[in-house]
Amino acid sequence: MKKQKQSLALLRNDGFQTLLASLLCILGGLLVGYLVLLAIEPSGAGGAIKAVMQNFLRYPNHKLQMKYLGQTLVLAAPLLMCALSVLFAYKVGMFNIGAAGQYVAGACACLYAALKWNLPWYLCLLFAMVAGALLGAISGLLKTACNVNVVISGIMLNWIALYMTNLILLQVKNPTSPYTKLIRGTNPGALLPSFGLEKLFNGEQSVTIAIPLAVIMAVVVWVILNKTKFGYELKATGLNYNAAKYCGMRENRNIILTMMIAGALAGMGAALLYLTGIEEWETTISSVPAMGFNGIAVAFLGGLSPIGSILSAFFIQHITSGGGNVDLQFYCAQISSLISSLIIFLCAFVGFFKFYMQEKLRKHDEKVAAAAQTATNEEGGNE
Helices marked H in 302-349 — which ranges? Predict the structure, then answer.
């Protein structure tokens, strides 16, 4: 009986529910992915799933493992920032699908500042955050002034930001390719410093302070949301707009500030990627980068918790990078994206699984209460 009570107490813990729901989503995604692989080519299905899950661990050499682990962490940092952008807005009752556009705006600002104006990395980082914040502010203003849903404005601004970025970055494009110039060769001072971190990852040059910066920002967001008056007001505005207004909170200001902060986080995410030099912007790209949209899955997989998002960002990037190791002898190059997408898609059901567990626990409590009441009535009748 004591063990049963302990188990039920553990199941009622919100953090444990989130963890369990996330694991169920991951296992479900792997299962569906495996079934798809079986349908295409049964002989290579097991090896493909193994390659996805192993990622950098597939290399027998420890130095190579550390090198590719470093690359995974570098790509996980901007993913975490986009997740923080989504969850910060969500805590205030807004679905920031515009994080993708804010990420694009940040990429535009930091690359233009680095390649056109030859500014140092910290100013490029600041420009990226300001650009993302301005785009977020537009959504916030449209919401408060014209009651335009942030999802509608966010989707429209995503495409506006993409094509404006392509147009602006044509001025710093490599003459022989559609990509922007290499920061390392044009303005090395714009690259984020590593402070020796690359030595831990076999000299991988893209490993910089972007990784610890992203983790620090996750902690800062957690503190703001859970330990400050400002965070309490933001969450109160999201839970009940009219009640917050009645209590004297500046609800419109809170909405605009929330979207600005969310935009700054997404813009910073872009800077933490492009200022590492790991990749360049393609000026002919015709679709919004998936980083901002994947941040939605990361946020929900992490239970809309800044700390949980750290782990979920690493996992999502781990399987995404691992998907590139699938044997192309059996499957086309796009199969790795399919497997990653299935897992990411099922990550959106974390909330559903938590609700299901809570309903089961509620029904169990009702049965226990009913049984206790029946026993009490019987004792009273016997007396």
Answer: 306-322, 335-346
Q: Which residue intervals of 41-116 are DSSP H helices?
A: 45-54, 62-91, 99-115
Quote the pLDDT of residue 40.
82
Task: Report DSSP letters for 131-184, one per residue.
Answer: HHHHHHHHHHHHHHHH---HHHHHHHHHHHHHHHHHHHHGGGB-TTSSBBPPHH
Residue 45 in 3-state DSSP?
Answer: helix
Extract the tokens encoding 235.
Answer: 């969450």
Stretch 245-272: mean pLDDT, rounded? 87
- As a 3-state breakdown, the chain gives helix, strand, coil percent values, each rounded to 5, of 80, 0, 20
In angstroms, the first-to-last Cα distance of the chain is 28
pLDDT score of 30: 80
Structure confidence at residue 6 as a pLDDT band (50, 70, 90): low
b/e burial code for range 88-125 (CB count within 10 A of at least 16 → b): bbbbbbbebbbbbbbbbbbbbbbbbbbbeeebebeebb
CA 175 centroid distance within chain: 34
Tokens representing residue 82 in the block: 């986009």
Instruction: Look up residue 37 and give its amino acid.
Output: L
Q: What is the pLDDT of residues 57-71, one digit of tens each?
A: 777 887 888 888 888
Tens digits of residue pLDDT in 165-189: 999 999 999 988 999 999 998 999 9
Q: What is the pLDDT of residues 308-329, one digit of tens each?
A: 899 889 988 888 887 777 776 7
Distance CA 199, CA 232 (A): 41
Phi and psi, residue 173, nearest 5°: -80, 145
Tally of CA atoms within 13 A in the half-sphere of 42 that contains its CB = 0
Give the closest residue to 183 by CA, choosing from 267, 118, 108: 118
| Beta-carbon contacts of residue 175 (< 8 Å; ≥ 6 apart) | none
Q: Check residue 57 and report its DSSP letter.
A: G
What is the Cα gyration radius of the chain?
24
Q: For 232, phi and psi rounded to 5 degrees?
A: -65, -40
Per the DSSP assignment, residues forming a β-bridge with 180 are: 173
Taking each continuous run of H as one helix and of E as one strand, the counts in the chain are 16, 0
CA-to-CA distance for 210 and 208, rounded, in angstroms?
5
DSSP string of 196-210, one letter each residue: TGGGGGTT-TT--TH
